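Task: sequence in, structure out. Protein: Methylthioribose-1-phosphate isomerase.
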Amino acid sequence: MTSETPISSLSAIVYTRSPPSLKVLNQLLLPHKTIYETVSNIKEGYEQIKEMKVRGAPAIGIVAALTMAIDLLLQNSNKTNPIFKDQESLKRYIKTSLEYLKTSRPTAVNLFRASDILWNITEKETDINMIIEKIVKEAERMLIDDVQDNKNIGNFGAEFILKENQDKKIGVVTHCNTGSLATAGYGTALGIIRSLYFQNRLSNAYFTETRPYNQGARLTAYELIHDKIPSTLICDSMVSALLSLSENNIKAVIVGADRVASNGDTANKIGTYQLAITAEYHNIMFIVAAPSTSIDLNIKSGKEIIIEERAEDEVTYVTGIVKNYNDGELKSTKVRLPPEGVKVWNPSFDVTPAKLITAIITEKGVITKKDGTNEFNLFDFLK
Ligand SMILES: CSC[C@@H](O)[C@@H](O)C(=O)COP(=O)(O)O
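Result:
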């Protein structure tokens, strides 16, 4: 099994402590434009997440934490006229800021977990500078650890899939974007695909467009092409047809997660559930890849997960880039598909029942169901 694998240079988050700086890649403009936007306060961080300029469960948790850190670093830099007069006012400010950041998106648990970790640190400390230092250190730790966690997920996942498959090279299917852009680097489900590729065991990665937001067609395509990983774009409606053709040698459907309940039910990008159903029908393993920070032991099943509903125009319009033939300038354009007056339902996520999931791969290892049961015991695994 490989371990030292090159990391993609695609970075959704660029952070330095000195000078204090947080820049977030605007993923709405990808793949056509690479523009980093500066985040220097809580409101700017909130808007980056809300507007999905940064997205993907691990990435939004990390950006929320780094937003808190950068905001405090910048506010605290004026030593002659400190903004926080006493620890109580600082704590109140941190509490309000973290609660606000948590309202940016409802489904991915990483955002809530990151905020809760920062609040626990704050509650325990009494010295103003110590509170700020510990918050900054913890947010930096999240950024650093996520990359190694993803490499571990990649290697555990590749090993698990290959154990069942003697073929020299295998094909896989993935959904949404779970790569460097959705994390601090390397990726979760896409991390497994990277690991398979680096081990020279990947024949092809098929990836869906992922309507309506097209994270697959825009972002996964961008990453796979960037890293020269053999891959093919398909529409969401083509997966069953693909799995039915044995010549493609598809051995696994691999997806990420926004929240995994303690029984293993998994919320992920809308369309994931139907992939799990078709994988089961075609007797192909269905793998969920996620850091343990995506597991929510506070909820028993997927029924308790709040599913984000997004604006109608994400469904009624497609957004693309057109080139102005006079000056070559690239301009973002929205084109409407259905007639005015159409009714729209736009849930951003769905829940795949644990029953349909073969294994959950985390940075700590592979979790499978106990023989004869339809549920995972994530309590036991994580304790
Ligand atoms: C490693 S990312 C895992 C999930 O967050 C991903 O599959 C997903 O559903 C992203 O949704 P998004 O709406 O783009 O934030």
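The longest strand covers residues 202-208.
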